[in-house]
């Protein structure tokens, strides 16, 4: 007889569990975008559109909902992936995917700058005795020091902040309705002027303002990063991305509509960047002004803090994988485990960018990269679900018309960006293409991969 010795089976590696439902995803997406996303854009977008910001929000919502469908369908095809970089790489080719990923890197770098600028502008309004540049240096320095110590916000704090923001904005809407009702009567609450005023409407100016106001929706694609943890991802990711855009658009439309009724003279704001605070003061008095200002500051500070962490993660992943010099970008502090070089570099870039760029220009540069990636995902969806489906049924409306319409809307918004955003964003894209040409020896090899997934986390 031969004695057999049983060897213990190798345990299977742990995998993510599919436990998230549809509304878990929707809630997560709204936390990412924030329900007050349109507030900071109000004054500039109102002036750019000559009083038609409500219209710009709705136009951008159509573009984002069509693009959200493409994101959701690509996430159902590639449920382990969660970025425009991956979808364009697999749906088109690795070189175009690299360009989409390179555009996303620009967004990662700009997010802390946009948030720091608005946080500093808000504090400068609340404490007028201190100059703007001092607030920029203080905020940029504090978020860098916090991240160097490994401190980061938690999901619980984000949930609390979400409820605070919703509560404050709800109070504003009640105060705005009361202000208009008591001042002009109930009929004044129902007017088409915030949507279309024939005396001031100009389609070119509205489209330019739309390219700025579209920042309201940037971040909805973060829902697709949870594709591996979702029950029935083929259905729920698609519905969640669309619902996040729709709910954000409708909630923002009500906010801006009421704000336009409270302050219809769009050319008379004391300060464009923080014009919504003046609307709050008129509608609800000083206490509402202070409450909204404090909420905006906390939201922007948290966004700058987590945005810097996300950018540091990305740079660390690229350094670890050899896309950037590993000795600098791919190293971690032995005690804290944080990428010190990346965080210090990002801190310096945040302060320099916040002192150099205006809030408007920084937001437009952010939209340059975002909408370039959005167009890539729509194109990838067309190729994946129509041209590559040789033996499967194809739908002309769902597989061609919908993503093509999303691509066209995004292209119109992208082309409407001001020249300054196109120059800065274009220079960044040219730099990426040149880098890609060197790495692939004239595009003869597959593009290097970019680390956008959580495995690249440095913290």
Overview of this structure, please?
It is a single chain. It is built from 16 helices and no strands. Helix content is 68%, strand content 0%. The model is unreliable at 1-7, 12-16 and 454-459 (pLDDT under 50). By secondary structure, it is mainly α. The chain has a single domain (22-387, 395-445), classed as Up-down Bundle (Amino acid/polyamine transporter I), CATH 1.20.1740. Helix 14 (359-387) packs across helix 16 (419-439). The protein has helices spanning 22-33, 42-49, 53-77, 84-91, 94-126, 132-148, 155-184, 203-213, 233-262, 275-284, 286-320, 326-329, 340-356, 359-387, 396-415, 419-439.
CATH-defined superfamily: Amino acid/polyamine transporter I
Class derived from helix and strand content: mainly alpha
Radius of gyration: 23 Å
Rounded average pLDDT: 82
Number of domains: 1
**CATH fold field value:** Amino acid/polyamine transporter I
Number of helices: 16
Cα(first) to Cα(last) distance is: 56 Å
CATH class category: Mainly Alpha
């Amino acid at each position: 007889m031969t004695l057999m010795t049983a060897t213990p089976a190798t345990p299977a590696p742990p995998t993510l569990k599919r436990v998230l439902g549809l509304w878990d995803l929707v809630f997560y997406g709204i936390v990412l975008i924030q329900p007050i996303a349109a507030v900071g854009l109000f004054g500039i977008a109102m002036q750019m559109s000559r009083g038609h910001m409500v219209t710009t929000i709705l136009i951008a919502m159509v573009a984002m909902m069509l693009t959200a469908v493409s994101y959701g369908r690509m996430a159902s095809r590639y449920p382990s992936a969660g970025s425009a970089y991956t979808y364009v790489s697999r749906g088109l080719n690795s070189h175009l995917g690299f360009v989409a990923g390179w555009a996303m890197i620009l967004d990662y770098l700009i997010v802390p700058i946009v948030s720091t600028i608005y946080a500093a502008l808000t504090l400068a309004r609340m404490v007028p005795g201190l100059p703007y540049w001092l607030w920029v240096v203080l905020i940029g320095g504090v978020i860098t020091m916090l991240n160097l110590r490994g401190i980061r916000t938690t999901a619980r704090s984000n949930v609390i902040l979400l409820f605070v923001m919703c509560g404050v904005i709800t109070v504003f809407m009640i105060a705005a309705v009361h202000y208009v009702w008591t001042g002009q009567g109930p009929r004044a609450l129902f007017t088409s002027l915030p949507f279309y005023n024939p005396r001031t409407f100009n389609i070119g100016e509205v489209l330019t303002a739309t390219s700025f106001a579209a920042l309201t929706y940037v971040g909805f694609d973060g829902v697709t990063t949870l594709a591996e943890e979702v029950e029935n991802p083929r259905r729920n990711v698609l519905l969640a991305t669309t619902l996040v855009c729709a709910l954000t658009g409708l909630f923002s439309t009500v906010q801006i509509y009421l704000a336009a009724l409270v302050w219809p003279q769009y050319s008379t704001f004391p300060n464009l960047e923080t014009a919504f605070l003046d609307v709050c003061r008129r509608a609800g008095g000083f206490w509402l002004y202070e409450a909204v200002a404090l909420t905006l500051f906390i939201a922007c500070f948290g966004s700058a803090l987590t945005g810097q962490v996300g950018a540091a993660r990305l740079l660390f992943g690229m350094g670890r994988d050899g896309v950037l010099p590993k000795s600098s970008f791919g190293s971690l502090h032995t005690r804290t485990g944080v990428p010190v070089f990346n965080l210090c570099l990002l801190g310096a870039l945040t302060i320099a960018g916040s002192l150099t760029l205006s809030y408007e220009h920084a937001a437009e540069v952010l939209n340059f990269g975002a909408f370039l990636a959005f167009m890539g995902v729509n194109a990838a969806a067309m190729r994946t679900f129509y041209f590559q489906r040789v033996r499967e049924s194809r739908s002309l409306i769902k597989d061609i018309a919908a993503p093509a319409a999303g691509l066209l809307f995004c292209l119109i918004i992208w082309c409407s960006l001001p020249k300054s955003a196109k120059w800065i964003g274009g220079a960044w894209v040219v730099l990426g293409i040149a880098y890609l040409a060197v790495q692939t020896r004239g595009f003869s090899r597959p593009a290097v991969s970019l680390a956008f997934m959580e495995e690249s986390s440095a913290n």
